[in-house]
Write the structure tokens for this entry.
Amino acid sequence: MGRICFQTSRIQFLDEQLLRSCYMTGLEGIAWERDISISGNRLMIDRRTHESGHFYFPWQAESGLEFMLGTTSLRESSDDYHLEVELARGTLYRLRNYLVERSGKFELSRNLSRQLNAAHEKLMEAALTWRHDSQLASELAAESIELSLRVINQLSVEDAEHLMEARHQAGKSNPMLGIKLDKLPELVEHGDVLASTFDAVMLPFNWQELSPDEGKYQFFDIDRLLEWAHQHDKKVVAGPLIELTEAALPQWLYVWQNDFEAVQKSVIQYVQEVVSRYKGRVHIWNASSGLNSAYVLGFSEQQIVRLSVDIVETIRRLDKMTPVIVSYDLPWGDYAANRRSDISPLQFADALVRADIGISGLGIDLSFGPSSSECTPRDFLELSRVLRQWSLLQLPLMVGVSLPTTAEGTLEPPDGWDVQTTMDLLHVLWSKPAVQALFWNQLTDGTAQRPGGLLTSDASPKAMLHQLQAFADHIRTD
């Protein structure tokens, strides 16, 4: 058992939910199972390894938005580390490495250069101070982090503009801009706004809703959505067909919860029914989503990989022409810190790509929020890194985004997400060369969902809907 200890002034803010989101990884990027405990002002992480590793901690920025920040690689030591100092060091280290990569292309502005130097000076002061004044060191490190994040986000937005201009100059087409459409808007004018804003729609084939009784199917709602999409000449992404979540699995399936072969048979029958009915009427099959993190049915990772292959092969057997993608959630794989997992999301995807079963692209679900099924937000530099990492599999990427959005007239944005920050995020994702489609994952707020829709639960439009409409107009005129 290996232990790494931090001193921190944030002990009073470390509740159970926050501690569960903290994790460590080694060089391979897979989160280690760990135990976290607190003693006085010390945060102690126990792992079943003595390897050096990176520690990740959700940091609340001055904006109120929480970012997952990481340290540099830390070795076991009899001495404590200082949490805020190490997070500041890790953040500045990532920024400096990025600046080295871009130095041959673009110069750093004087303003950003001053902020970068100030971040470095604050870190140096914090590192020299913490052993005799931990509180002051925490404050200095926090200032360094804020400065580094400001530079990271400004640079990322600038570089996104460069990438978009390079795409335009090369004559390459823009990615599709899409919306996940689980039901039609109640008002015709809202439907008109959607039609003018988005190039594509994703129709979620929720198994639980489509087959509440075994062997029986009700496709009326899907047919209405598909008819609307065809009327408005939208590309249609069908799926995900399979999600192993409580919200998507029919209740009758739990009879075979521990019987993999029975569940496998039911999954294949359902996929056959859907593909046979809608073949030739959709443009992309989204075979499955989030199977990398699935645990509801208690199957092994090898069985889940087998099921992923079965779904794609079933689609391919019935429809050899329509592109098929497989989607993954929680792409950092931090869920492995709280339950055993031997493969990261990227390794899961790599296994399916290498199997050469006819996958045409990969989906990455960036649902940001506080629940265990959502990601803690990352800064723009880390988002760029993970997309670049996934692009190494040499398949197009379809990115889905959802996060809290503000209603019209609301003064305080939820969880720190204001409209400008959200639009900057979308610009950064949109600009990446590997990204071929960008989808907003939630149309309407609901009682069981956090407020991430473009419409409120009473069908009022939010500011984000108008911003997306302006964004779509802008990119189409470039």
User: Anything to note?
Assistant: The first helix runs from residue 16 to 21. The first strand starts at residue 2 and ends at 7.
